[in-house]
Amino acid sequence: MKKLIGLFTIAVCSMGILKAQITDVTPPVAAQSNSAVKDSSAPALAQQVETDASAQKAADKRKKFANIDLSHRGADHFMFQFGGMGLGGATDDFKTNGFSREFNFSFMLDKPFKSNPHYSLGFGIGYSSANLFFNGKYVDIKSTESELQISDHITGTTNSFNKFKVVLNYFEIPLELRYSANMEHPNKGFRLAVGLKGGLLLSAHSKGKNEMNADGSTIYGKGYIDKEYSKRFFKNTRVSGTIRVGYGLFSVFGTYQLTPLLNTGAGPSLHPYSVGLALGVM
After folding, report:
1. What phi, psi does 182 have (nearest 5°)?
2. Which of 3, 173, 198, 207 is the most exposed place for a label (fewest CB within 10 A)?
3. Residues 255-280: pLDDT tens digits?
4. What residue ranges do the domains of the chain occupy?
């Protein structure tokens, strides 16, 4: 009987010691597990917060423009431009002489962006007439040579004209990305537009006044006018970069032709450019 009581006592003590050991070991394991869960969920939580912030920002932006009334917003339905011209890449023979000028007219639509009406897309159709002056020279656009021939009386080799110009007329499709500081009334605030326009050559002709001989003397009198028509030396299409900066209906503009003016082999790589004033009519 005493042996049984002793064995029972030893068993109870052993169970108590074992329980104490298990209790001492368990908390660190649990703590480590909770820490791992916390560490693994931190990036996901941060990403969720960032996503929510972006969504809230977009919602605030939409709310900001929700009360903007664009129903009476005007657009540059009619655009008139007039400016001086030059020829980039011109050699001595092809340097212009006189007031070269360009006139542009276009009808355009204006489509504001829903996400931000400060910006809009402008597009339409237009017409452009470029007048390149070569006073004191003769540009033979009807020549049968492979290269465009230019002469002047200073060289003493052939005839020329006291006043002479080459006129190029284009059908155009302009495309602009626009910014208007005043969203509801663009004609009452700062405006900026950059874009491209493609052109199709409709006609090309030259016009000379007062033909002179190699000595510089008039041949037919000062009232003599000579016109010649030919598109042979000029590219049928062109692409130009454009920019406009202004306030309200008035702005200054600039253009630069990205494609060469002449066909390959017809002469130097000429790139017309222009700077002038623009008027937009709503």
Report:
1. -100, 105
2. 3
3. 999 999 999 999 999 999 999 999 98
4. 1-67, 78-281
